[in-house]
UniProtKB/TrEMBL annotation:
EC number, UniProt record: 5.3.1.1
Protein task: Involved in the gluconeogenesis. Catalyzes stereospecifically the conversion of dihydroxyacetone phosphate (DHAP) to D-glyceraldehyde-3-phosphate (G3P).
GO cellular component terms, A-Z: cytosol
Name of the protein: Triosephosphate isomerase
Keywords, ordered alphabetically: Cytoplasm, Gluconeogenesis, Glycolysis, Isomerase
PROSITE patterns: TIM_1, TIM_2
Organism: Nostoc flagelliforme CCNUN1
Length: 248
């Protein structure tokens, strides 16, 4: 199957809880020159900690990079210590927001229901949510991968506009472990995810130990439209190699 041109290539760096503002400036000095070689039509997104957003939005103005956030609360404002709202993000130049990352589900009590609320709110404020789904090693070994992901999609995507959405398949056992899901297997799961969507043109990423040495093979898969990168997005040279992947 050939990739339809309407499915955008979306490459995002999830910086998690890494990089001060000074470290962010340093990263940009090394990274930005590489974007001159980036082929047209690739969406490049950086999702830094909140404190880096305004620095980045000033520096990145006019560049190819779009800004993403790592969380959004479902209320516009209120007594929600530690949370951040849609208007705060859009004011900082944010266009995308990661929702339902496995680290939020695992450590911060995120459920499919709260994921759905956050997705709705992101869209309400004109942001494009990146919904993360994926199974643990235990669930994979028990043969539950397909049913678990199907449930995450069913509940997460309730009443969500699929024309303004990115999905990331991130098998939890492949995150930060150096153990990548085989490209062919990631392609299979992403195909299954697509078959459950009402809009077949949603861009679907793979995430989990994406590195310069496996990016070309991953992006050669027909169902995979991009990547969500953790560790390898923190270093300018390695993220540049990923963004400038070569088509096989
Ligand atoms: O969680 C991830 C991106 O959201 C993946 O992290 P790693 O690339 O470090 O495995």
């Amino acid at each position: 199957m050939t990739k339809l041109p309407v499915r955008k290539i979306v490459i995002a760096g999830n910086w998690k809880m890494y990089k001060t503002q000074a470290e962010t400036q340093e990263f940009l000095r090394g990274f930005l020159p590489h974007l001159e070689e980036t082929p047209q039509g690739r969406e490049v997104i950086l999702c830094p900690p909140f404190t880096d957003l305004s620095v980045l939005s000033k520096t990145l103005h006019g560049s190819l990079i779009q800004l993403g956030a790592q969380n959004i609360h479902w209320e516009e404002y209120g007594a929600y210590t530690g949370e951040i709202s849609g208007p705060m993000l859009t004011e900082s130049g944010v266009r995308f927001v990661i929702v339902g990352h496995s680290e939020r589900r695992q450590y911060f009590g995120e459920t499919d229901a709260t994921v759905n609320l956050r997705l709705r709110t992101a869209q309400r404020f004109g942001l494009t949510p990146i919904l993360c789904v994926g199974e643990t090693k235990q669930q994979r070994d028990a043969g539950e991968t397909e049913s678990l992901i199907s449930l995450q999609l069913d509940k997460g995507l309730l009443d969500i506009d699929q024309s303004n959405l990115v999905i990331a398949y991130e098998p939890i056992w492949a995150i930060g472990t150096g153990e990548t899901c085989e490209a062919v297997e990631a392609n299979r799961i992403i195909g299954l995810i697509r078959s459950q969507l009402s809009n077949a043109n949603v861009s679907i990423q793979y995430g989990g130990s994406v590195k310069p040495n496996n990016i070309d093979e991953i992006m050669a898969q027909p169902e995979i439209d991009g990547v969500l990168v953790g560790g390898a997005s923190l270093e300018a040279e390695s993220f540049a190699r990923i963004v400038n992947f070569q088509s096989l």
